[in-house]
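Lay summary

Proteins are chains of building blocks that fold into shapes. Our project writes down both the chain and a compact code for its shape. Here are two examples, one after the other.
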Amino acid sequence: MKAFIDRFMVHRLFIAVSNLCLVLAGLYFIDIENPDAVEITRIREMPREAALPYKPLTKEEKTKRFFQEIRIDTSKLKPRQVRQSIAPWMSYISQYSLQYDVDPDLVSAIVYAESKGDPFRISSVGALGLMQIMPATADFMGFDNVLDPEENIKAGVKYIAWLLSRYGEHHALWAWNAGPTNVHKKFMPFETRKFIVEVLSVKTFLKEAKTDLS
């Protein structure tokens, strides 16, 4: 009886090995006859990078990526609205931009983005006038009545000049809209991103308009 069982087990093992050999041989000939099978196998291989652990971006990396990928789009602007918004205030913009050595197109773009030229605009957080100056900022810069258009622009130009002396243009706009503390914390609200893009787009539009007229 034991001899019979031994022969039976050997027979089963022989069948299993034979089947395995047939399968391997079949795969070998499929690959040779169908080179595309090799390519499919390669395509299905997971890229090495995909197997690496997920690494979230740091605040510094997010900021760097935003400024690298920023898209200036002047096509969505309304030229007439831009000009009408800043035209009444150009004498003040030119005068104080020259005094504080700031690009007047940048100041004009801030006026447009902040108030669309409305000298009496007051935001929900208390920002005032054409350049939406916060009362604390006005006090810091030494101004009392920033609802007066001339004083508002003078205060705004003086403040952006101070920010530009501390940061580059992009970071100065970041600090203008979100506050210097958030720049140091590397925190940029979504509204600040929109503000920076709008200001830079209007500034670009104004410079291109001058080029077209020359």
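And here is the second example, written the same way.
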Amino acid sequence: MPRNGHRTPTTSEVPPNPPRISRIAVEARTEQPSALALRGRNRPSFLSVLGLFFVGLLLAWLVVNALKTPGDFFNVLLIGLITGAVYALVALGYTLVYGILQLINFAHGDVFALSGLFATTVILSLFNLSGATSTLGLVGGLLATFVIAAVFGATVNSTIELVAYRRLRSAPRLAVLITAVGMSFIVQNISLAIYDVNARSIPPLISAHSVFSIRGVTYSWEAFFVVLVTAPVLVLLTWLVKSTRQGKAMRATSQDPEAAAIMGINVNRTITFTFALAGALAGIGATLYLIEFNIRYDTGFTLGLIAFTAAVLGGIGNLTGAVLGAILIGTIQAFNEGLSWNAPGPAWTKSIVFAILIAILVFRPEGLLGERTPEGA
């Protein structure tokens, strides 16, 4: 009998596997799968490799064209930047509304077309700018046209929100989506009823003389005018959204409408203001488009889808992303229609744009600058 009343265990009572050895074995078994999983996560997926392959092919095609015809390449690049600037104004309207309501306002492109047709009436009938003899009168008339078209677009877009969307905020998303498509056809048919089926255009108002010409690369005053209008509008929009009280209300409503209402923000007024701001951008963009091209009742349908693709490419809900996506889409369209070496041509423009949309939804649903959300947007 041992001291202190404790007996010594016999050999048969000693555990056959010491605890230390079993613990090491368990740790080895648990660490091995985690290491394999880590290596699997670091390995690029097939879709990522495929996407990088297509991007590499595109860059190689652009480099070959730049080496073969450098003058044409940079002229086409300038055209693409101008087209992208117009698309940016429309894409910002999509992204503003989506950011605050998670709603794709498919009527936005048709508001663009109706505003552009209305601008033809203002330019030709109200101010008669085609007969303007002085530069000051022309500049003043164009400035007034931009303001009137912006107010008109804001009025139409905010009316759409009041009539069609406000009562559907708590409805299923499919109901809101169907309503947006229906409003698109309604606005389009209003444009058709008022301005008929023919395309409308205006005489050249901006000089086509070059601002500079370097080794075959020409930049005209007509193209520079688009930059003169677009750049201040984008700067003003950024300041409004990020630095003003109304912009802070928009961002708060976008993050949490219920919490914003508790904090004293008028959510209905903020949403209406956002629709009005998007419509104003559409009106300015439509006037710029009219100065460069012609416009008819269904122009906004195709252009709106292209601008929507640009917003998705940059990251829907992200202002900077919408501008980046619009410029990329504009340059891709210009390269496709303007380059000479193995370019698919204008007939393929729509197919290429929507192929980009599908590729973005497959490879990077949140867009280039967007953030991944639980819905994957």
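What can we say about the second shape? Confidence is low (pLDDT under 50) at residues 18-32.
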